[in-house]
Amino acid sequence: MSGFYTPKRTTDIYIPGSKFPFKLSRSRIENYVSCHRCFYIDRKLGIDKPPSYPYTLNSAVDKLLKKEFDVHRANGTAHPLMKHYGVDATPMAHELINEWRNPRVGIRYLHVPTNLMIFGGVDDVWRSASGELIIVDYKATAKEADVNIDAPWQQAYKRQLEIYQWLFRKNGFEVQDTGYFVYCNGKTDRIAFDGKLEFDIKLIPYKGSDSWIEKTLLEIKGCLDANTIPEPNQDCDYCLYLKNVKNI
């Protein structure tokens, strides 16, 4: 019988003292930043949070954007969105691009001080006219207001882009500090649906800094090696839920 909880594979659980690198995805690093306790219970004890429902519409937008940019990647041409926003670049053609975009494989780097194999599946990579790489992430939503990346919860978006920038730098590439979000906003002001959903697409620049990553990885290593579970995080919905359940 299927349920919310599925035991993790042995390779998903951190074993102190193991000589084998421990794989840690970009999203798991974000989980640590959000809540040390939930991260520890997941990666050390093998008990993850209940899964959320899949964002299938967002995945469809992601897939279509990749197909669209791939046409220009194959032709060595700039996408009209790049031209509109004055970005002098073209989608990067590379033999590993599909591997880098695969969330189960991604671009990876072994962080030797911690023996953590960091990886993440990037949405897109552009190459500037000067030869530097530009890291790009796709986002999709549907709201009345103009899209931006100014909300506090969108700090996670920014860290996501910064980790990708860090990974490419660690793999020997020259990467521009400024990356971009291709933000698609579904139009809800149409008279009728007519079997199609139209989007406004905005290119939002973001100047990233990966200076926080090294320190965070060392903290993660210390957290995983500890023998005690971190204290509950008062800003974590899951920690608050469990605390209130116990008080019933």
Number of strands: 8
Q: Give the helix level as a range of percent.
A: 25-40%
Radius of gyration: 20 Å
Characterize the main sheet: 5 strands, mixed
Unreliable stretches covering 5 or more consecutive residues = 1-7
The number of distinct helices, counting runs of at least 4 residues, comes to: 8
Shape: globular
Question: How much β-strand is present in the residues?
Answer: 15-25%
N- to C-terminal separation? 29 Å
Strands ordered across the widest β-sheet: 2-5-6-7-8
How would you sum up this structure, described in words?
This protein has 248 residues and is of the alpha/beta class. It has two domains: 1-52 and 213-248, no CATH class; 55-105 and 122-210, no CATH class. The protein has eight helices and eight strands. The chain has helices at 26-34, 36-43, 56-75, 80-84, 97-101, 155-170, 213-225, 237-246; strands at 22-25, 89-91, 107-111, 116-120, 124-128, 133-141, 178-186, 199-207. The chain has a five-stranded mixed sheet, with helices on both faces. A three-stranded mixed sheet has the order 1-4-3. Helix 1 (26-34) crosses helix 2 (36-43). The longest helix has 20 residues, at 56-75. The two termini are 29 Å apart. The relative contact order is 0.16. The model is unreliable at 1-7 (pLDDT under 50).
